[in-house]
Amino acid sequence: MQLFVCVVLVGVVYADASREASVGETTKTVPDWANEERFGKFQNAWAGINDTTAFYYMYAATYETETTFGGNFSCLNVHTTSVREHEKTVDAVMSYKDSTGQWKQTEITTKAISKYSYSTENALEYGPKGSTGKKDVGVVVFSDSKNCDIMSVKNGEHLELWVNQDVKDAVPDCCLFTFAYFSVKTTTTTTHKFYEQGNCKKNDGK
Q1: For residue 147, which of 122, 177, 172 has the smallest C-alpha distance?
Q2: Bridge-partner residues for 151, per DSSP?
Q3: Where does the record locate the signal sequence feature (predicted)?
Q4: What sign for the dihedral angle of Cα 37, 90, 97, 72?
């Protein structure tokens, strides 16, 4: 039933976007899913980062390497350590395995912000804790904080699928289907898996 609902939802997104694409040139610069009136309730950026008890794993992405993590990496996960509600900002620890299989950690600060003229926070701006340099931005395509978040990253060219620790070994079909559907709309239709159950056990105890 959950997968059926996802199929219907994605179908609505595609149909609405197809109709709007013919209205004017400006719609071409806005992703199909960036419509607050219709889909904003599925794109709550703040809900996905303000839980200090949860770990989230990057299960898959449409890219394979990332210079921030030294090129090849796996088991990327993030855990919020402190929350500043009034600023919509959190501090977190990001952990991953590098190309040699060694665990690495970095502290980051993440702020929920608005993109595509949304009145609510539908994106995350993040970077090394204490840094005043340029931040990365990920925009929420779909969010169900108890299960998964799908993020549009790298200036809209790629997608990431993040999953809650409680479902990382049995990701709901709805999450996998929605990620697969929107992945074909990126610059590459290839997806890469970054989480493997036997390879990624760490201090969350699961």
Answers
A1: 172
A2: 140, 160
A3: 1-15
A4: positive
Query: Could you give the CA distance from residue 144 to residue 179 in angstroms, rounded to a whole number?
Result: 13
Whether residue 22 is predicted with pLDDT greater than 50 in this model: the reply is no
Dihedrals phi, psi of 182, to nearest 5 degrees: -75, -20
Q: Which of 80, 75, 76 lies closest to 49, judged by CA?
A: 80
Q: Tell me the percentage of the chain whose pLDDT exceeds 90.
A: 63
- Percent of the chain with pLDDT strictly greater than 70: 83
pLDDT digits over 140-176, tens only? 999 998 999 999 999 999 999 999 999 999 999 999 9
Tell me the CA distances in angstroms from 69 to 50, 64, 65, 76, one per residue in order: 24, 11, 8, 9
CA gap 159, 187 in Å, rounded: 10
Which domains are seen in the chain, by residue range?
A: 41-193 (2.40.128.20)
Distance (Å, rounded) from C-alpha 176 to C-alpha 170? 10
